Amino acid sequence: MFQADGCTRHLHALRAAPWLRDEPSAEQPKRRKAPRRGRGRSAEAVLKALVVLGPHPRQADVFGACRPALASWERNPRATTSVLVGLARRGLWDTALKVTRFMEHCGLEVNCFHFTSVISACEKKGKWEMALTVLGRMKEEEILPSEVTYNAAISACAKGDAWPAALQLLEELRMDGCMPDSITYNAASSACAAAGLWNLSLILLQDMYESTVPANSITFSTLLSACNNAKQWQRAISILFGMPAQTCMPDKICYTAVISACEKAGEWNKALGCFSHMDVHTVEKDEICFNSAISACVRARSWSQALRLALEMEAVPIAVNGILWGGVSTAMQQSSQSVALLSSRLCREWASQQRTSHTSLDFVASRLGADESEHEVQVLCQANGVLAAFKPTGLSSEAALQRLSHLLSLQGYKGQLSRASRLDGATSGVMPVALGEPGSPAANWLNYQFAARMVSKEYVCLCAGLPLGSRGTQGVVIAGLATQRMQASQLKVAWTSSGKEARTEYEVGEVFSLPDDVDALHADSVLMLLQVKPLTGRTHQIRSHLAGIGRPIVGDRAYDGLAPGWCPRLFLHCRRISVRDLDNMLFEPVVGLGSNLPEFDHRFFGRIMASIPPADVEAVQQSYPVQVSQNCSGPRPKLLQPPQLEVQSAAVFMHVQLQAAFFEIDMGNSACCTGAEASAENEQKELTRKEAVPGAPDLPGPDVAAPIAAQASPGEYLIQLDKSTGAKLGIDVDHKDGETLLIEVINEGLVMDWNNANSKDRVTVGDRIVEVNGINKDVLQLVDECKKNQVLTLKLRRGQ
């Protein structure tokens, strides 16, 4: 930090204590001072100039904006603080940091207030690493941080989910002689709550009582949010009803957190009890409280209670949106209750409220649907309250909606648009759009139909793998899905018993042999053109389900699909959608595969498939039979059993039976427990097996050993993995046969790296490890050998 010389310090002293100045003599008249500009005007002008520069301006531009105010800042240092506070409120942390550099460059003192403003700006954007850097810079320059400084830094850590750093700052605050207040504890507790660490939040509450720091409603709401995130509904109820009524009354945020915790645990009666108890303390019920209580009833299929709460919500009055009514309708359908009257009533009410001009849209639709490029957003058709747009590949649903809104505005449409569903950026096809802003009658009606599962969608895709059957064969895939965050902010959806319910029906259209220039995992793999109907609307549902049964979509690199040169994009197209407009009439826009996928027409169908004869599906199935589940007979689509997976009762089930010696295997993300715990779990219920989605993001990984030139029996293959660095294999296995390790899940690790580097001998789900470094027919020795940090030579047998 810049240190002022003696003269400058003397001037500061005179400004701070004007009585130290020499009085003017009688012979020497007083010098008339020039008028000065007020600090507010100067600060406001500088702040406006800095805001215009954007969030990350150049240092030279910041210097240029601040230099005209240098004289004013020298006379009145508070003007600088006013500018930095304005930047902090806007979250312009980079600009604020560069302003402090300008101050140091010009010899102005940067004090605790200035640094605190910079840290507050970092807190606004969750830049906790930068906040800690600025805090460390303060200590290096021997500027003692205040309680406000630490509070801002801890809040930044809370927003960045950095709870260890928040707790460390709390200790440093005490070491620096500062006293933590309720804001300090609440910020640290919020950081723990985001991670579901309710026990640490409870410890902080106890520390507050011991330090005689008064707790407030924010303190308890934060603690209850931590219990909610950790699914500790019993603990949340005890804390809620144990709050000191004399000093702190529970508010609606506290009640909502407890109701949400009960909803996640399926304790809908406890959720309703907490909801009713709000009347005891005369706590106002808002939309969030009603939503949580209704969601708990919907999850428990208590449709009568959900309907009662929705009607009570309307009587408050609080508007019930379409998504909430859709949940009520779903609960009624699951209880075999008719929803025709409810749907008709909602349609009439929302239709009477809709005021969108319909005649103007006829002109817009005809203009936008005629001459637009097949690679641009188009209006296909429209009805009362809804229109259908074509979304091309490579464009997100949000971006498509913005382009569509711009096109309609050019044609005179002055209203807003909203969507109820989305298509992946790589997927093309029909996208329904409501003619109105979110929460409008048209948007509510469309959202209601999606939430009540009244919408029918039909996709067309091309996948590769062992044949699912001849033309007309029908099947269904049922598996829970959970979203995972991968590297570089990529999303991936995996099969898991704890995931959301998902069901996908399909029908085989055409079957073709693979071109000669396409490598496949199995020699008998084919290309299959499928018509797919997702009965639930989960993220990446079709892509994950088809990849999970070993038939990934062509062009889907994220799920290990084939990526030939003649298919430059994901071969997934939403062909048709069926909804109802505000006149309660069917609205079924269709976009054919050939008319909007010209690259496939020319490069694939016209050039490739015309020269490829249909595969002999029946002959291939003699070697790779596709069995039909006996529990899916009748007019409903039949469930086909993939070669790699064992299907039973329309889902993948197995008992989790682990031996104590196998629990500590270091092969990836396997769950570890004691033998008694596993036995007790098997006595209570049958767990659904977690299935992995084959493949991984196309990212560079560590070097993998080259394929081994060794002999293997038919149906077996050898791989070599270097585990000497301590890296994990990244696989979950089952050993119930006592001799081999069945691969159930492939996570990130050496096995996935091997698959990325070797196109032929790829390890797949369903393969068995039969030998490790010469050891075989003893599962315990296989496990022990895999745990060693050395080069592993694995012999694997293809799944049957």
Walk me through the structure.
InterPro entries: PDZ, PDZ_sf, PPR_rpt, PsdUridine_synth_cat_dom_sf, PsdUridine_synth_RsuA/RluA, TPR-like_helical_dom_sf. Residues 718-781 form the PDZ domain. Keywords: Repeat. Residues 19-41 are annotated as: Disordered. The chain is of the alpha+beta class and 800 residues long. Among the domains are: 354-451, Alpha-Beta Plaits (2-Layer Sandwich); 456-575 and 609-641, Pseudouridine synthase, CATH 3.30.2350.10; 661-669 and 692-797, Pdz3 Domain, CATH 2.30.42.10. The protein is built from 30 helices and 20 strands. The protein is globular and about 85 Å long.
Keywords:
800 residues; alpha+beta; Alpha-Beta Plaits; Pseudouridine synthase; Pdz3 Domain; ten-stranded mixed β-sheet; six-stranded antiparallel β-sheet
CATH topology of the domain at 456-575 and 609-641: Pseudouridine synthase
The main sheet comes to: 10 strands, mixed
**Percentage of residues in strands:** 5-15%
Net shape:
globular
pLDDT < 50 runs, ≥5 residues: 1-41, 356-360, 595-604, 606-613, 616-711
Q: State the distance separating the first and last CA atoms.
A: 71 Å
CATH class of the domain at 456-575 and 609-641: Alpha Beta
Sheet/helix structural class: alpha+beta
Say what oligomer this is.
single chain
Can you say what the CATH homologous superfamily of the domain at 456-575 and 609-641 is? Pseudouridine synthase
By DSSP (H or I, 4+ residues per run), the number of helices equals 30
- Mean pLDDT across the residues is 77
Query: What is the number of beta strands?
Result: 20
Which CATH architecture of the domain at 456-575 and 609-641? 2-Layer Sandwich
Pfam families: PPR, PPR_3, PseudoU_synth_2
InterPro entries: PDZ (IPR001478), PDZ_sf (IPR036034), PPR_rpt (IPR002885), PsdUridine_synth_cat_dom_sf (IPR020103), PsdUridine_synth_RsuA/RluA (IPR006145), TPR-like_helical_dom_sf (IPR011990)
GO biological process, one term: pseudouridine synthesis
Protein name: PDZ domain-containing protein
